[in-house]
């Protein structure tokens, strides 16, 4: 019975941790690009990242979910992350894992705009 209790306690103890991680999405902190960039340049950087991201490992479906979450408001992003079973290690989504333990690192430029974005007209 002590083994069963230990297993039950382990499961009970680990479940809230996953739930806790998935419930703390926050807006990324302000950041500055090395040089001022235009919205078109930012879009190009983002497109290049998302085009190559699946080649870094992990599941394409998780990368797709992260992309949609990154482009959504926090409430929708939270729903997407929870539905896909993504474990958020950093509240700004810069470091996530899937249920199999694969690591997904997102650069800040796919999550928010830099403080030195050149706004035209």
UniProtKB/TrEMBL annotation:
Domain of life of the native organism: Eukaryota
Name used for this protein in its record: DC-UbP/UBTD2 N-terminal domain-containing protein
Lineage: Eukaryota, Viridiplantae, Streptophyta, Embryophyta, Tracheophyta
Residue ranges of every copy of the DC-UbP/UBTD2 N-terminal domain listed in the record: 22-119
UniProt-annotated stretches for the region Disordered: 1-37
Species of the source: Setaria viridis
């Amino acid at each position: 019975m002590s083994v069963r209790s230990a297993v039950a306690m382990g499961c009970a103890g680990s479940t809230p941790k996953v739930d806790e991680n998935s419930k703390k999405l926050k807006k990324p902190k302000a950041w500055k690009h090395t040089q001022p960039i235009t919205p078109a340049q930012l879009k190009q950087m983002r497109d290049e990242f998302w085009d190559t991201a699946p080649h870094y490992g992990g599941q394409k479906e998780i990368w797709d979910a992260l992309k949609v979450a990154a482009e959504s408001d926090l409430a929708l992003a939270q729903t997407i992350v929870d539905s896909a079973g993504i474990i958020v290690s950093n509240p700004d989504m810069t470091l996530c894992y899937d249920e199999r333990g694969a690591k997904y690192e997102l650069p800040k430029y796919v999550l928010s705009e830099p403080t030195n974005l050149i706004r035209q007209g």
